[in-house]
């Protein structure tokens, strides 16, 4: 680990000033400290923001949810309103990591976490995300866990967050605070595909803070859930995953929100699947036909072609779990 300065701030103004001077925000530190140990990350100054007043989960006036950036994963997963309104969020969080990590890591840190591509974490390997212009060892290397959607010739790494898949499906917004004031960004625009700049991963400006993630109100009742498929049952990153939320009225699907994880360079919304569901009545045939559209546009690599079929089966299974069959 390289030497660094450490400062703790007690208010947002102090945080923004430190951030403007180039300080890196840290709260739970469960990703950043690991990466610093491996010398992948070498911040000169860490700014501890864990004392900022961003620890609340609240129901918004319109009936959505606002989750403060510093709410711990475990707190968010266990929160009665999160469990009641959006079980897909609770399930995604509980399947993410060990209890110890969930007790430390925050919602803001979770969506900021960096890829688990092994070449990214190996400082002797070529990696455009870690060192722009150096190449991508994964594209010709062992790429079984990598992305099949949203890739570029510069980077094929997946985004590792589970709860980000639920946020993408639920059309969340990320609230930010910077020296120019507050703004909010649609979750779909917050995490960036690699394109020609895989080192740029979020639509954050210098020194900006995430203050909360807001889930808009959806029609009720909304049935939702998260399914994660991985090499081992306990605390592993997703090979594929599916976040599904369905609103049925009179036995007909009126709203369908579906996103996939483990397959995209960002959490991957599946609009073709959603379109196929809306206006239909649940049936096994419907789930199968809709899931057939899940891998539209996929570009598999040498070792991860299996993800195409696995993704379809993951989506089909989760549609059946959430939507049931008559
Ligand atoms: Fe780096 Fe992305 Fe290539 Fe992995 S896939 S080695 S993160 S450029």
Automatic annotation (TrEMBL):
The keyword Oxidoreductase applies. GO terms for molecular function: FAD binding; oxidoreductase activity. It holds the Pfam family FAD_binding_5. PROSITE patterns: FAD_PCMH (PS51387). Keywords: Oxidoreductase. SUPFAM superfamilies: CO dehydrogenase flavoprotein C-terminal domain-like (SSF55447), FAD-binding/transporter-associated domain-like (SSF56176). Residues 1-220 form the FAD-binding PCMH-type domain. PANTHER family: OXIDOREDUCTASE, XANTHINE DEHYDROGENASE SUBUNIT C-RELATED. This is Xanthine dehydrogenase YagS FAD-binding subunit. The lineage of its organism: Bacteria, Bacillati, Actinomycetota, Actinomycetes, Streptosporangiales.
